[in-house]
Amino acid sequence: MHKVIVCLAILILPVAATGATWTVPGDSDSIQGAIDMAMAGDEILVGPGDYAESLVIDKNLNVQGTAGSAATRILAPGTSVDAVTISASDVQFDGFEIRGGRYGLSITAGVTGLGLLDVVVSETGYQQVYLYPDQVQMVVSQVVLVGHASGMRNSVLVRQGTLAASTTWPVPPAGFVYQFVNDHDLTIAGAASPVLHLLPGTILKFWDDSHITVGSGGLPGGLVADGVIFTSLRDDVGGDTDGTASAPAAGNWERLEITNTAAADSCRFKDCSFRYAGQGSHGALMSAGPTQFENCEFEYSSSDGLTVTSGEPTVTGCTF
């Protein structure tokens, strides 16, 4: 009789830990040091104090100032880099005041799912926030913006980009505007016929060849604005955004263009003001579709206030 002995080998593989918690100070003397050590999904708990550093959050982390923004400050040295840059989606960043750096809070392209709680952005080198058009609602609705002591350069600087989904931009706090410079153009277009809604009290400032295009590449888009000012970066309405004593002039920026692919029922302007546009012999607003204008002002344009290239806009109670 033969006995058969069966040996079972059990292979135990190491499992990477997830959801670890790191402390500052403790595991690291700096917040960035903890970020570098952490894995995606980890938590970093930051004790109260002033941290003289700039941060780059490049993975999905939960970074918490345990004592809140009143007691936990990021003081970025110099103005050559941004104070806090977030380049990963699904980051939670809570309980900090951000100061210093070039821009206070900078969000890179493609970042979504960002959570910001008790985050104050105050004395920065230049603008407080730098982001893309599709991130405006996500960020501006969550942060607390505090103006510079100088009263100048208080703005949300919007990079060039396309809105492909409908959104409403929050009205910035008093003294703040949305700013577009040089080639930072905003395009509103997409298969889902996106519409950007701008609320009363919103101010958008432009410089040089920056402009807004509604509808592009055969795709529809819309823009609905009520009580909004579209003007030059040098116009001090809403604050001294450019930080100079230079006066605004006709043609400081290009135009707002409603193309022939814009959504017919989603381009409406009421009680809006268009100022100092028309660079390059453009009208301040070029319309190629059935846009509605009610009680709007077209002022200080270098060319036409409203140029109609096609279509039949409805113009009621406007001044030129």
Which properties best describe this structure?
320 residues, mainly beta, ten-stranded parallel sheet, disordered N terminus
What would you note in describing this structure?
β1, α1 and β2 (43-46) form a beta-alpha-beta unit. The protein starts with 20 loop residues before the first strand and ends with a strand. It is mostly beta strands. It contains two helices and 30 strands. The longest helix is centred in the N-terminal third of the chain and has 7 residues, at 31-37. The strands form four sheets. A ten-stranded parallel beta sheet has the order 4-7-9-11-13-16-19-22-25-28.
- Rough shape? elongated
Q: Report strand order across the widest sheet.
A: 4-7-9-11-13-16-19-22-25-28
Number of strand segments = 30
Intertermini distance: 109 Å
Measured as a percent range, the helix fraction is: under 10%
Uncertain spans: 1-17
Q: Any idea what the radius of gyration is?
A: 24 Å
The largest sheet, given as strand count, sense and whether it forms a barrel, is:
10 strands, parallel
Question: How many H/I helical runs?
Answer: 2
Strand content: 35-45%
Class per helix and strand makeup:
mainly beta
Look at the structure and give the mean pLDDT. Answer: 92
